[in-house]
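Dear Dr. H.,

I hope your travels went smoothly. While you were away I took the liberty of generating a structure for the chain from your last submission, since the lab meeting agenda had it listed for discussion. I wanted you to have the full record in hand beforehand rather than looking at slides cold. The sequence, exactly as received, is reproduced here:
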Amino acid sequence: MPHAPILVAVPADVRDFERYRWHASPDTYLNALTRVAAATPIIVPAIAEEIDIDLILDRVDGVLTTGSASNVHPALYGSEPDPTFEPYDTARDALTQRLIQASVARGIPLICICRGHQELNVAFGGTLATEIQEIAGRMDHRAITHDDQRERYATRHEVALSGDGPLAAIVGQSSIRVNSLHRQAIDRLGNGLAVEARAPDGTIEAVSVKGAQSFALGLQWHPEYWAESDAPSAAIFRAFGDACRRYRQSRG
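The corresponding predicted structure, in token form, is as follows:
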């Protein structure tokens, strides 16, 4: 039986290329939405002050915030800008902070990946640490240097899941192997968030929104990359798609 049609908003990154400014999103996330979550993605341009966010959220059934080469601007969590935090994308920051907060308030299903996971923490008043591989006792979570993207995004370490959390319920396991590619991570956990997974070095790899009306998860790793072949990654995107369909049905 075909899935009911659903729309998922995906906030754009801003890129300057060949004398033009582009609003775009990596296709790995779009492919995971269409092929596994059975959703139609809608890329939202990062011009938050010029578009009607409520109008968009009135029409979509879910929101996905993606990873990116850019980082959340430190001013949003009370830190000073520094070259080690760069590059930035303040236009995306302005859009995602509003989308995240409004989605949770409305009960719209929300999945936040990599940069998105960090955006979720900041939206709830948390902070970020950068260059975590230089912190004593921490692993190196950065991507390896390789010409083959499949090697760069290969799963490389385990994460332990919270036994009573929604993420463990979705994947049906107490630990999974993931592909974390990051040099920033959650420092102080945002108010109202619960830890769903940790790496062996204690790094927070997944969170949920306490008391959320619907699916609301942040994942530091990249389930979108292997969503068509890795069972836990597929389970996450299917669960998100199912949550979006339930939300659509609930609003008639």
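Two observations you may find useful: The longest helix spans residues 231-250. The chain has seven helices and 13 strands.

With kind regards,
E. W.
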